[in-house]
């Protein structure tokens, strides 16, 4: 992994710290989105909403 980091450092002209910070920031964002999706799926199951109905419900709500 270190060699891959060094490759990107040279390619992008960035420091190791910059690359690691960006990677961690993206990882944390991805984990937050996964949590939001899990919560949404759980709530939908509780309410008996299927995946096919989600877009229809959102469109109706926006009207």
Q: What is the strand tally?
A: 0
Poorly predicted runs: none
User: Percent helix among the residues?
Assistant: over 70%
Number of helices: 3
User: What percentage of the residues does DSSP assign to strands (E)?
Assistant: under 5%
Number of domains: 1
In quaternary terms, these chains amount to single chain
The biggest sheet, with number of strands, parallel, antiparallel or mixed sense and barrel status, is:
none
Structural class: mainly alpha
* Overall radius of gyration: 20 Å
What is the residue-mean pLDDT, rounded to a whole number? 94
Short description:
The protein is built from 3 helices and no strands. It has helices at residues 2-12, 16-47, 51-62.
Please give a structural write-up.
The structure is a single chain. The chain starts with a helix and ends with a helix. The chain has 63 residues and is mainly α. It is built from 3 helices and no strands. It has one domain. 0% of the residues are buried.
